[in-house]
Amino acid sequence: MKALANINGQILDPQRAQVSVFDRGFLFGDGVYETGRSYDRVFLFLEEHIQRLRKSAGRLGIPVPWTDKFLEDQLKATAKAFGKDNVYFRVIITRGEVSQVGLDIATENPTLVILVQDLSEGLSRLRSEGYYLLTSSVRRNSSQSQDPNIKSSNYLNSILALKDVKERGAMDAVLLNVDGFVTEGTTFSIFSVSPEGKLRTPALSVGILDGITRRHILKASQGLCNAEEGAYSLEEFQNAKEVFIASSVREICPVYQWDEKKYQAPGPLTLKLYEAYRKGVENSVKNSPHRY
Ligand SMILES: Cc1ncc(COP(=O)(O)O)c(C=O)c1O
Asked: Are 218 and 254 contacting, i.e. CB atoms less than 8 angstroms apart?
């Protein structure tokens, strides 16, 4: 078994797990989600994921009638039934099922879907070999249109960017905002190490997702290097000794090439930060109540 699903509290074989064609998540991408992983049967930073899920749902006016404990218990039950120590999880909440097609924000019964699956086998190779990125010609949605800080089920902005760069041979894409400042990747936060050795990452105000890994990397950097968040032009941000990407599932992966720029991958600060980040992970896992 490679995956297991839970729909509205019922654990199901993923082949038999179905949501209605009248579900707003299917019709309009009208839902929110969180993705994360477990380490040795512990869901990492689960409070932060649930908090962000509620925040995203709140921005869209999608009710979340379930308690944090219920959500956690369902996640644990699904992972337990799946039976693996290290899993990928996805929690999705949509505005729910309607009786006929039509754009509306009314909602009575949101849909809750939990997916648990094996972590991708290629992860450790990506962590050691790194990424080839291209800057997409597709700009990141502005905070005034579809705010990237809402982690919604509609990822067409990222999909358009990914399509653009995959057609040009890259592994993944970085998006600029409409003013030309570096934001983030299709599904990851981005960091660089300036020529002076300063850790840099785009500020939340340029219009990015408030990444959970990003927060923990900034925390882990204290005592290791100076760090700053800002609005960086592509040229300024790429003028770096090291570049790496970050997300809950991938943790930290180096970048060996971004457009024409080549970087040592992984670079020395990237390695140090990875070590510090992993120490934080180990501490959280040791003291975590989120064990299944
Ligand atoms: C657009 C985007 N930015 C950043 C991230 C990284 O966020 P996190 O570290 O919370 O996984 C993700 C993860 O899905 C994402 O989709």
From this structure: no
CATH of 3-119, one of 3.10.250.10, 3.30.470.10, 3.40.50.300, 3.40.50.10320: 3.30.470.10
pTM of the model: 0.97
Name which residue sits closest to atom 4 of ligand 1, judged by CA: 188
Gap between the terminal Cα atoms of the chain: 18
The structure tokens listed for 281 are 């992970």
Is residue 213 in contact with ligand 1, taking CB distance under 6 Å?
yes
Q: Which of 51, 206, 248, 281 to mutate to test the pocket of ligand 1 (most atoms within 8 A of CB)?
A: 248
> Per-residue pLDDT tens for 252-292?
999 999 999 999 999 999 999 999 999 999 999 998 989 99
Closest residue by Cα to residue 252 from 170, 164, 168, 193: 193
Pinpoint the alpha helices (H) of 130-208: 156-166
